[in-house]
Amino acid sequence: MTRELSASLEKHGFTPYPESVRTIRDGLRLFVAARKAQKAVGMVQTEKRLELSSAVLPGGLTMSSGARVGLHTLTWENYQKLKTLMPISPSQCDKHASFGTGDRLGLVSGAHLNALVRHPVFPVIAQQSPRELVRTKRDFRDVLLKAVMGILESGCAGPYGADADHIKDEEYLMMGAEAGFSMYTLDISDWLQDTAASSPDQPSLLSRAIVADHAQMELPVPNYKTYAISEQELLRSAQIYEKAMERGKRFDSLLRGVVQDFDLEISMDEGARDTTVEDHLFVAEYLHRSGIDFQSLAPKFPGKFQKGIDYEGDVNTLAQSLRRHVALSSQIGGYRLSLHSGSDKFSIYPLFAEMTEGRFHIKTSGTSWLQAVKVIASADAALLQELYILCLENLDESKKAYDVSITRRDFPAEMLDDLSAFLSRPDVRQLFHISYGALLDTKRNEIFETLDRHEAEHYALVEKNIKGHLELLFC
User: Fold this and answer.
1) What is the pLDDT of residue 59?
2) Integer CA distances (angstroms), 170 to 101, 250, 322, 362, in order
3) What is the DSSP string of 344-387?
4) Which end of the chain has fewer CB atoms surrounding its CB within 10 Å, N or C?
5) What's the predicted TM-score (pTM) here?
6) Residue 296 pairs with which residues in a beta bridge?
7) At 452, phi and psi to the nearest 5?
8) In whole angstroms, what is the distance from residue 441 CA to residue 390 CA?
9) pLDDT: is 195 or 193 the higher one?
């Protein structure tokens, strides 16, 4: 059937993805086919069992066997119909380890899955933050639809997650809920109180109870010395984090009013303050005592977790901090620790996996975008030079959303002749990593056209890159 299907589709310029062909039920098969940049969901059925809208080929095709073939755009309406027949909606994490692969352009979820399914990890392939949505001019529905297309295209049958990442306001929280996302990462970094700038408020009764109950706590750290909780530091943590926790309670309440089941993550990683054991303890206990069930927490670990480059800092200091945070999470809740800005942090992956005993969540995003830049470098050096100049012209604006230390004076006016070596420089990786918004604003069509023409190369680079991350975690 696949050969006959291919021959019928090729007459109209479409090529099916071989791995995508699957049987949903008797007489109904599903596949994905592409014609240049246009991808469509195809159905083969001997009798009409499902009617999709937005036909790409009005009237469809008839195969010699008599089966009818329809090709349709994956619209939101068609997604709603398809998910009644097969499990393509995002779901909660069902494994100890999970891995997020933000697909900024919405092009490579299939490649992400090809890497992820080979390891014991729950794939979170629909993952984007509001700052990414704004810069890519997308919304949560589009992010989810592109992930679903990757699921269908790759032939993947397993569950996957969708993460509304780094949520700071109610508007985007509700947008993620409306789209049916399965994970919500609440970023509390903007809600912390600066106790040095003003007289701290008197902690609430709940906060004072947490401090009193844990003031003499000694935390056993396996294979290391016991950590004694500081009452003074715990009180300071209460003063810094209490208002943020109240905001988190409101967001959790809003979600539970519209979403039945979801994974909740608390992100502490983007503030200026490294997360102390006392900070972690206060936040986790405040949530627990408020009846809020959360599945993962992202501390701000010591050292630098800048975008698109390896970890910078003292690994021994990181190991000591990680050891204590793992011990605390194991003792008071068993939730997972999350590593943000996880792209390309190759030097610490074995340590992180070992310390957490394989219970973790890791987020990547920009590393896949950097593979797209490599494809452009190979296919169109002139376009890459234009993109590089735009990166430099917009660097100050791009830096407003990301913590990187690069400046305009770090870069030559033009790229060096050896593009592969030039793009491997840490400062250049950071430059392109954060500049995607400015590049898409000006060169969106050229970028997408180039990547569409070189899809196989693009997929191969992305898959190899994600495999490189996973192999270090599960070595």
Assistant:
1) 86
2) 24, 9, 31, 24
3) T-GGGHHHHHHHTTT-EEEEE-HHHHHHHHHHHHHH-HHHHHHH
4) C
5) 0.96
6) 265, 336
7) -65, -40
8) 10
9) 193
Axis crossing angle, helix 381-393 with helix 426-434, rounded to the nearest 10? 80
With left for phi above 0 and alpha for psi between -120 and 50, is residue 433 left, alpha or beta?
alpha
Q: Does residue 171 have an active-site annotation?
A: no
Which amino acid, one-letter code, is at 318? L
The encoded tokens of residue 46 equal 């001997």
pLDDT band of 109, cuts 50, 70, 90: very high
Sequence-distant (6+) residues with CB within 8 A of 89 are 83, 180, 182
Q: Which of 187, 242, 252, 265 is catalytic?
A: 265
Q: Write down the mean pLDDT value for the chain.
A: 95
Q: How far apart are CA 296 and CA 353, in angstroms?
A: 15
Q: Are 242 and 284 in contact (CB under 8 A)?
A: no
C-alpha gyration radius of the chain: 24
* pLDDT of the residue at 286: 98
Alpha helices of 90-139 — where are they, by DSSP H? 109-116, 130-136
Query: In the 8-state DSSP scheme, what is residue 11?
Result: T
**Residue 265 appears among annotated catalytic residues:** yes
Mean pLDDT of 50-75: 91
pLDDT tens, position by position, 396-454: 999 999 989 899 999 999 999 999 999 999 999 999 999 999 999 999 999 999 999 99
Q: Which helix (H) or strand (E) holds 101?
A: strand 97-101
Of the listed 103, 153, 163, 165, which one is catalytic? Answer: 165
User: What's the pLDDT at 196?
Assistant: 61
CA distances from 248 to 239, 241, 274, 307, 434 (A): 15, 10, 20, 26, 28
Quick one: what percent of the chain has pLDDT higher than 70?
A: 99
Cβ(361)–Cβ(99) below 8 Å = yes
> What is the rounded distance in angstroms from the CA atom of residue 270 to the CA atom of residue 298?
9
| Residue-wise burial string across 326-355, b where 16 or more C-beta atoms lie within 10 A, e elsewhere | bbbbbebbebbbbbbbbbbbeebbebbbeb
Distances (CA, A) of 382 to 344, 414, 455: 27, 11, 19
Which of 295, 340, 335, 336 is CA-nearest to residue 183? 295
